[in-house]
Amino acid sequence: MNVRLRGIGMTSPRTRERMVNRLRELGIRHPRVLDAMLNVPRHIFVEDAFASRAYEDNALPIGFGQTISQPYTVARMTELLIEAGPLRRVLEVGTGSGYQTAVLAQQVGKVYSVERIEALQDRAIRSLSDLKLRNIRLKHGDGYLGWHEYGPFDGILVTAAPMRLPEALLNQLAVGGVLVAPVGEAGNQMLHRVTRTEAGYETLPVEPAMFVPLLPGTA
Ligand code: SAH
Q1: pTM for this structure?
Q2: Which CATH number is 176's domain given?
Q3: Residue 215, in any domain of the structure
């Protein structure tokens, strides 16, 4: 692995290890999630000016008014998603920097990820190809509509908050599948976990959350 990917100083594997130790203290337990967070260099997903802060437990700007999710949030959402068992196909709505995509790709068969801002998607494509992850498919589009072609999905992870869970996403969830998404307006959001059963949907509010809004259309 080259020096930029591996990281030095504030972006070194040691710094990443400290981040993972903090996640453990915050209650993240799943060994595969902790491993993935140890493996994926978060600093290549943030702008160079923020690289030295990439392993603090904060959201950071990635341009276009968007943020890379806080490490705790990425870990928690991934844990909620994979707790249900092995997942073959996962839909991610809101690729953003691609960091969550990379973490997911270590845990599941294939990740399908949709982003509405084309310029962000272009950057995510570059970062993800630097990591040579092959089980990822990206699309520029409106995630409110999901990605019908590849559904139903065993897991769906939404990284921006709608006011209500989008119908198309619920429809594209396989029976037995799990959807993890924040819901609600800024300042009053709740992370939800929805399981689809033969009979319908079981919704569990998990914990308060802070995400950018899920917006309609593309940019
Ligand atoms: N997981 C990303 C989070 C980025 S913030 C990361 O850690 O980098 C949320 C992202 O959702 C933003 O990039 C935003 O543009 C995107 N987004 C918002 N509404 C969307 C929609 N309807 N469809 C697809 N992406 C959307």
Answers
A1: 0.97
A2: 3.40.50.150
A3: no
